[in-house]
Predict the 3D structure of the following.
Amino acid sequence: MTTFPGSPRLLRSGIVLLDPVSGVVRRVIALQYNPDTLTRSLQPKVVGTDGADRSEATRLKGPAVETIKLEAEIDAADQLADGDELVVRAGIHPQLAALETLVHPSTAQLQSSRQLSAGGALEIAPMLAPLPLFVWSKQRIVPVRLTDLSITEEAFDPNLNPIRAKVSLGMRVLSVDDLGFDQAGGALYLAYLQNKERLAASTSPGTLSALGLTGLP
């Protein structure tokens, strides 16, 4: 997994966890190696459906539902060669655990919920998790919800600590429909859309002649 000495230093992608109330950065999880591919799917939220008023056919109800999928690799080879004490002792358990905490409530939250239940609380609010931001360069900083986390451990040290794994992440982008306009996450989503609009406006406009047309029928 070592890189050629003359190759440019690449930025790393990853996930930033924000406090859901204050917006303060709680944790940064940088992927060890950037995935080779990134799959995005966008499903428009449309008004027009079968049997609906035809005048509504091109109206949009809100931002498209966007999902992101990627596969990342985690490998302890370089750290083991350098004698990294944590990796020698625990392999890549810490890196995997950092990702797994994204889909679990904390033990403190679980204990608090148990105490409230034992105290006779009639209604216990779902536990509030940090807001994840998926970061893939400055052009893509977007709030997400993890929908799927799959880990395939492929190699182990003599103590059965994993030392190589593939991680599959599925995420759903959270829009202003999910977060509102007044929260930090909503503002970040708007900035994400505004950047798309700026990039789209910077492209050269197409012409009908490029499509082999001189005009529309």
Remarks:
- Residues 184-201 form the longest helix (18 residues).
